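Try it yourself: sequence plus pyridoxal-5'-phosphate, in.
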Amino acid sequence: MASDPYSNVVVDLDALRGNFLAVRRLVAPAVRLMAVVKADAYGHGLVAAAGAFARAGADCFGVAEVEEGVRLRQAGIAGEIVVLLGLPPQGIAEAVARELSPVVFQRALLDQLSRQAVIQGKVVGVHLKLDLGMGRLGVEPAAAGELAAAIASLPGLRLAGVLAHFPLADDPGATELCREQWERFQRVAAALQNNGQAGERPLLHMANSAALFRFPETHADMVRPGISLYGYPPADPAPVAVGQELNLRPAMSLCSRVLQVKELPAGRGISYGHRFITTRPTRLAVLPLGYAHGYPRALSDRAEVLIAGRRVPLRGTICMNACMADITELPEVAVGDEVVFLGGQGEEFIGADELAARHDTISYEVLCRFGAANRHRFVGDEAV
Ligand SMILES: *Cc1c(COP(=O)(O)O)cnc(C)c1O
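Structure, out:
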């Protein structure tokens, strides 16, 4: 269309499905899998990604906030939707109506949640979050019994799960600490189960992607992979070469087009601040993508892009809506040619972990940033 932007995030839904199936094969059939789709499915598009996972068999999804769960329900996603950051007071009625399963970590709001469940004639499954050393969301183990007892005593509530989160599962130096946290989790969770109400046993879940790969004993009743579903190993350098073994396939690309091609003599300054001065007669491609598209200005003069299937360096400061590539070696490149900032072209590939390593962050942040700042185009057999 005439109004299409120059640049797009392109998401391969087949890759998402393939990654889900690859991770699924890695855990025993009895272990449930929560597809973590918070943060717009790590930038891949919440509804499209969840749909791809659902068609691959996913029946449990992890979102951060109620609003994301509501969007999934509106899109027809069935199965359990766990709200990882819990409920704000104003989200309770809607969460109950949409049959979302909140994570709980404090006594406040439980009465209100129970009342809403009774009014709406529903039983809300809640997941009790323990802080076993993450230093983030969750109750201290000593306070968990009281919270579980409150859940057991309130009508309309059911303890559906008990969870914790590993802070160091991707750190090869912290193996012992991970094992200790896992054992502590089992002890605390077992005590909660014994004190809890009769009936269905709550699901125990602790493993993110890193733990899922490195500590199979932590798979418990359910695993919660995020980054691996999007095609990346959990850390850089990867704790084990899981990506390759599993054949995970990065699903996101960031693509644009050459806007202008020009020949410059040696000694010309490029872009703001003249951070780069040409040292030879240079063929330059002006590209309509910059930090407004989430491409970090911190990558100025330290990143490459793919044009005509080749890696070429970016030159000079990355602007808000533009940057420049040196295509001196590529005389055939013309205005309108595809430029890949993230993803594959020909035999070449630029990964989110590569871009992340070049400016001191992780693949997760790169994916979220590109996803948040660009229009999405979906490809693959499942794209509609
Ligand atoms: C984001 C998140 C995950 C997924 O972690 P990955 O490292 O992306 O696999 C799992 N559990 C919780 C509680 C999370 O917040």
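One thing you can check immediately is this: The pocket of pyridoxal-5'-phosphate is lined by residues 36, 38, 84, 165, 208-210, 224-228, 234 (CB under 6 Å).
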